[in-house]
Amino acid sequence: MSVDTKIAFDQEYIKAYSEKRQEPKWMAALRLKALEKSENLPMPKPDKTKIDKWNFTSFKHDVAGEAISSLDDLPEDVRDLVAKDQESGNLLVHRNTTPVFSQLSNELKEQGVIFTDIQTALQNHGDLVEKYFMKDVMKVDENRLTAVHAALLNSGTFLYVPRNVEVEVPIQALYWQEDPEAGLFNHVIIVAEDNSSVTYVENFLSYGHDVESVANIIAEVHVGQNARVTFGSVDNLAKGVTTYVNRRANVARDGKVDWALAQMNDGNTVSTNTTHLIGDGSYADSKTVTIGRGSQSQNFTNQIFHHGQNSEGVLLVHGVQKDSASAIFNGVTKIEHGAKKSNGEQTQRVLMMNEKARGDANPILLIDEDDVMAGHAASVGKVDPIQLYYLQSRGISRQEAERLIIHGFLAPVINELPIEGVRKRAVEVTEGKVN
Amino acid sequence: MAASTLKIENLHVSIEGKEIIKGLNLEINGGEIHAVMGPNGTGKSTLASAIMGHPKYEITEGSVFLDNEDVLEMEVDERAKAGLFLAMQYPSEVSGVTNADFLRSAINARREEGDEISLMKFIKKLDGKMAELDMGEEFAQRYLNEGFSGGEKKRNEILQLMMLEPKIAVLDEIDSGLDIDALKVVSKGVNAMRNESFGCLIITHYQRLLNYITPDKVHVMMQGRIVKSGGSELAQRLEEEGYDWIKEELGIKDETVGQEA
């Protein structure tokens, strides 16, 4: 028997919610239309992972987050996520979807950079948001969950970098789900206009509860000509949270996107990271790591679509599976007809720490053009007993040896995370999952 | 530190059901350097692996004691903490773990919690030992053995030996694949360890290492047993005359394991 995936929110509720948030009319209309569509659209069908029994309906939608007067009001572990060099930097903190702290340097404001929560952006920059919201990168009607996302959006960030502006300090957004029941419908829009550059890092955090909730997350990234976006993330949502996350970028001519994603949720997760290399000479580098533990089931799809000529895409996925966790890793390199001289490389490695863990790496190369280069490597293997023996022969305990091997295995991605505090956090999260 | 004794009695070792070592006796005291020599296939490396607890080797009979402790009852890491060390013939590569982090973990593993080696002290020691072994500073931050040449791996084994200061070390073919300069460096490292509380078992089938590290005792292994023991002059004679005279003396036709006299 499949669980009912229809959400329990009606037109009246959505209308009132949009009004309460003082949204522009187009947004209210979009939400209502999305709600209507959601009723008939199919659920997403992640390859080889059954999600029909996952919870997508049990959550609280509108939860208030108590305001804070300074960062020092945050609990220590949340506070620690803010890197020292970020304290005077550019930071947005959400608590139960409510923005409670926001800071952007005057210098960037003067250059026209917009960095604000999605609610404020809809109020103050409605036309600009409309131009990008689920238009070119994501679509509302891709499946039931993308439609539900649009209807119920309750959190998010809008980051806009005008032409020729290079933002040197990383921009950080924290999404702290203090209430374990709080559902998260988080929407991030990043627009990097031509010749601009920016680094954005996000952290999702909730605590080790079994309480059921849902996170339905979308990030849309627009990379202009010759622009560069670095996108880092540490996802760390608790066991009870079902996560459906799409992070997607469109990259224009000579543009570049670098993804560094630490996917450390403890609950069932379907995560898709997609780049469309639209322009000639565009470039994408996608690095992701994950640790599965307990009995969680996860599905990761990392994909790069080459449309432009001379486009280059590199995928690197490292996953560790512990306990009886299972995960599917799909790596997709698609080179469209006409994308001459493009180069797509992908590597997926899965390390299994015990007999009951399951991991499946599927490298998929779809090539509709002759004049290209493409390559893939995929491996799924158990932890090497001889490696453990070697480390233990120096006095290191088996547990510590496994810890070292896992850290080492994930290092190629974690070392690429753009903010030191976030990198440290990823290492700590790894630590927590290993022990 | 008082000298330790490693005592191996009537040791029998099998791999995948096949017996490789067939009743071996050996006693190594702190302050002594022993060499086990012998042609290929006589069980020398099996001896080294069995002492350390390699997962593929099964001890079917006999005992190994380090002072009063039953080594065969211990996990691999406990053996190391008790004071044993094996410089391996084929050290593993561990990606993503720097040499320095690994060594610090290994040193701290044998210290109490709260008594970890200070970073300054560790770095000072590491720098000193690396300099003794002519290892460039970059080796500290390189991933453990990853992409190391054969010679670099051997040097790295000796670096670990010098950092961890075991009571008894077994060096398994630490000389194989080394050019003469590297051999000298490695020998220098081992000789620097020499003192009355450090015992060492060198496994080799070349005598040339023993030109640089003079053993107190030399043993010849054939057919999974020690068939002859002597002083450093025995190594000398083996260098000059090979193993045939021993085989002749003992009536052995084929010295490898599985062949009986």
Structure description:
The complex is a heterodimer of chains A (435) and B (261). Chain A is 22% helix and 38% strand. Chain A has 435 residues and is of the alpha/beta class. In chain A, β1 and β2 (98-103) form a beta hairpin. Chain A starts with 10 loop residues before the first helix and ends with a helix. In chain A, 55% of the residues are buried. In chain B, strands 6-9-10-3-11-12 form a six-stranded mixed beta sheet, sandwiched between helices. Chain B starts with a strand and ends in an 11-residue tail after the last helix. The model of chain B has no long low-confidence stretch (mean pLDDT 93).
Oligomer: heterodimer
Number of helices of chain A: 10
Count of discrete alpha- or pi-helical segments spanning 4 or more residues of chain B: 8
- Strand runs of chain A, count: 19
Shape of chain B: globular
Structural class of chain B: alpha/beta
Strand arrangement, major sheet of chain A: 2-1-5-7-9-11-13-15-17-19
> Helix fraction of chain B?
25-40%
Measured on Cα atoms, how large is the radius of gyration of chain B? Answer: 18 Å
Domains of chain B, number: 1
- General shape of chain A: globular
The CATH homologous superfamily name of chain B equals P-loop containing nucleotide triphosphate hydrolases
| Proportion in β-strands of chain B | 25-35%
In brief, what are we looking at here?
The complex is a heterodimer of chains A (435) and B (261). Chain A is an alpha/beta fold.
Question: Can you lay out the helices and strands and say which pair or pack?
Answer:
The complex is a heterodimer of chains A (435) and B (261).
Chain A: H1 11-20, H2 25-38, H3 76-79, E1 90-95, E2 98-103, H4 106-110, E3 114-117, H5 118-124, H6 126-132, H7 144-152, E4 155-161, E5 171-177, E6 184-192, E7 197-206, E8 213-223, E9 228-236, E10 241-251, E11 256-263, E12 269-277, E13 283-292, E14 297-306, E15 312-321, E16 326-335, E17 343-352, E18 358-367, E19 373-382, H8 385-392, H9 398-414, H10 420-434
Parallel strand pairs in A: 1-5, 4-6, 5-7, 6-8, 7-9, 8-10, 9-11, 10-12, 11-13, 12-14, 13-15, 14-16, 15-17, 16-18, 17-19
Antiparallel strand pairs in A: 1-2, 3-4
Helix pairs in contact in A: 1-2, 2-7, 5-6, 8-9, 9-10
Chain B: E1 5-15, E2 18-29, E3 33-37, H1 44-52, E4 57-66, E5 69-70, H2 76-82, E6 84-87, E7 94-98, H3 99-109, H4 119-132, E8 143-144, H5 150-164, E9 168-172, H6 180-193, E10 199-204, E11 217-222, E12 225-230, H7 232-241, H8 244-250
Parallel strand pairs in B: 3-10, 3-11, 6-9, 9-10
Antiparallel strand pairs in B: 1-2, 1-4, 4-5, 7-8, 11-12
